[in-house]
Design a protein that fits this description.
Layout: H1 6-9, H2 47-54, H3 59-68, H4 81-85, H5 89-100
Helix pairs in contact: 3-5
C-alpha cells in the first residue's frame, strides 16, 4: 500500500500540549519532606507517607494527578500504587471530578 504524502497523512490539526497547572503542589503537606518517604519498599511501610496525606489540603488534586498520569509508583493523595490500582473506574472518575471542581 502506498503511503500518503506527509501533508495528507493526518487530517487533524496538530494538537498543542495542554498547559499543566502544578500550582497545587506548593500547598502540599509533603512539601519539604524527604521524597523517599513516598516511595516505600512495601505497602506496610507507607504509613508515614499516608500520615502527611491525611492532613493535606491538596490531597484530592494529588490523587487525581496520579490517576491522570497512571502513576505506577509511590504514595499519591494518600493511596499506594496497589490501592490506586484497585479503584473502580467510577471511583477514578469521581476523584477527577472532585479535583476539577
Amino acid at each position: 500500500m502506498a503511503r500518503k504524502p506527509a501533508a495528507e497523512q493526518s487530517e487533524r490539526p496538530l494538537e498543542r500540549p495542554r498547559a499543566e497547572d502544578y500550582s497545587w503542589q506548593a500547598d502540599g503537606a509533603c512539601r519539604g519532606a524527604d521524597p523517599e518517604l513516598f516511595f516505600p519498599p512495601t505497602e506496610e511501610e507507607a504509613a508515614v507517607a499516608k500520615s502527611y496525606c491525611a492532613t493535606c489540603p491538596v490531597r484530592v488534586a494529588c490523587l487525581a494527578f496520579s490517576i491522570e498520569r497512571n502513576e505506577r509508583f509511590g504514595v499519591w493523595g494518600g493511596l499506594t500504587e496497589k490501592e490506586r490500582a484497585r479503584l473502580t473506574p467510577a471511583a477514578r472518575e469521581q476523584i477527577l471530578r472532585q479535583a476539577a471542581a
